[in-house]
Known about the structure:
The chain is an alpha/beta fold. The protein has one domain: NAD(P)-binding Rossmann-like Domain (Rossmann fold, 3-Layer(aba) Sandwich), CATH 3.40.50. It is about 40% helix and about 20% strand.
Amino acid sequence: MSTIGRTIMPSMAGLRCAVLGAGGFIGTNLCRALAEQGAKVRAFGRRQSFPEALHGCDWLPGDFTDSTSVAAAVSECEVVFHLVNATTPASANVDKLADLNANVASTLRLLEACRETGVSRVVFVSSGGTVYGIPDLVPTPETARTNPITAYGISKLAIEKYLGLYEYLYGLQYRVLRVANPFGPYQTALKNQGVIAAFLRGALSGKPIEMWGDGSVTRDYIYVDDVVESLMLAAYHEGLGRIFNIGSGEGRTLNDIVGSIDRLLGEKIPVDHRPGRPVDVPVSILDTSFAASDLGWRPHTTFEAGLQATIEWMRSSRSD
């Protein structure tokens, strides 16, 4: 057993795994951690945002909608980490059919490939911020009603259900992680996701921070290293649970984040307010007590420590 932070982690040495969406934010961090732990990592994606970060991984370029490429990516693997996210909450609502085809239909083809090639488990990154919709209970547990207000959340929920069906019909094990709002190194905010990355890039470039709405939207922000730990635990988890909330359990408004950035940078960053968006749930905070009791996972990075580490990485990457 090895330890990262205060979480006792299973050994990843020798694990044959595929990371789908490896060139993205969470995928890059996960691949790095798996390779460092001695796993045999096949990294699959359309492009690498940071090629040097995937040193030690077997990079396999391909599109998630190409069933032949996906089948090749998962062949001879024990565990598949499904991190592909072809749309955003805003774009999914604009073209719902495209969202369904890109995410749900492509995932069904993935599950068929996993079944045919003998994959034992799929670990899927779902969305803790969208599957519940406007929550009845805050913090929100996994047992809460799921009533998404975006096509994006509906697609995530549909994939969760299909994972359950494939375990029931074929014995393909699965674990779902409903991740809150992750942030940290290697996040680019190029798809208009990742508010902290977007805020920091503006602030470090001497530009005003662009904010949707009045800044009262409240979210649960979780540092990416803690998310990676949950993914590793999910690869070997043998408890009863299948779906876990992964978040800090604490809420912060957009105005709170701006205040933290001001303090850490030592200056007042101007804010450019834009109209609020209907896809934004007013408050989303996750109850992570089930992940603590059944998955053995707890976050250990404080928000400000994670924010400081992200600032340092951004400054380093800009100079590079």
